[in-house]
Amino acid sequence: MFSILIHALLIIGAICMAGPFLWMMATSLKDNTQAFSDPLSFLPNPIMWQNYPNSLQAMSFGQAYFNSFYIAVIVVVCELVTTSMAGYAFARIRFPGRNIVFVLFLATLMIPFQLTIIPMFIIMQKLNWLDTHLALIVPAALFDAFGVFLMRQFIMGIPKELEEAAIVDGANRWTLYWRIILPLLKPPMAALGIFTFLGQWNSFFMPLIMLNSSDLYTVPLLLNQFREQYTSQWGLMMAGSMIAVLPVLLIYILGQRQIIQGIALTGLKS
Fold first, then answer.
1. Closest Cα partner for 34 from 21, 19, 49, 48?
2. What domains, with CATH codes, occur in the chain?
3. Do 136 and 210 touch, CB atoms closer than 8 A?
4. C-alpha torsion 189→195→197→200, nearest 10
5. What is the pLDDT of residues 58-87, one digit of tens each?
6. Model's pTM, two decimal places?
7. What's the CA gap between 218 and 73, in Å, rounded?
């Protein structure tokens, strides 16, 4: 009986979570008359397939897709390198104040991002990086407290005997990281890479502050412009939203196993 109740609650929760997405998908195939019909109908009749090509023609989705994709890929690659190196340093290298520095580093997770946007904007202005993609790539690629925590916790669970054996064979610190630790970090790196890619692809606030030129816009910014231009064309708006969310949905479906494995293997060791 308890198992049936749990499954029923999970099914209800799944329906509540999937409901808005399914409604968006259905509305993307409707015209305005169907979208506001009384009573509301979930299934479109007739199906307006032309909403998708019309939305693609209305906005330069190709350029926005390229901008979002290459920014996300660069940030993912750089962040995986920096977080794994920092995580290794905090887990294995003993230096004065290591634990204090790590705690202070994690404390930054409690600072709302909105509080840092003004000093970040001033820094980007001083560097002449406003209205460039560098303002989106460099800060995200060089600092991720959650990623460092994830890597550090995983490395703490790796037996030290592996490194001690390599040291006996003459390995230095860089060799230990590159040849021993890094190959073992595939599960947390896969999880962090997926989290980072999804976060960068969906990022709206930072690009909104840093970018002005429309040819530099990412997908979320383009969708915002689309909403302003076609405020009453709900079918086109939902079609554009579906086009924007498909890559994220595909990556999540393909990478959900890596996400679960990376988090499960990391644990919460101190």
1. 48
2. 1-49 (no CATH), 59-266 (1.10.3720.10)
3. yes
4. -130
5. 777 888 889 999 999 999 999 999 999 999
6. 0.82
7. 13
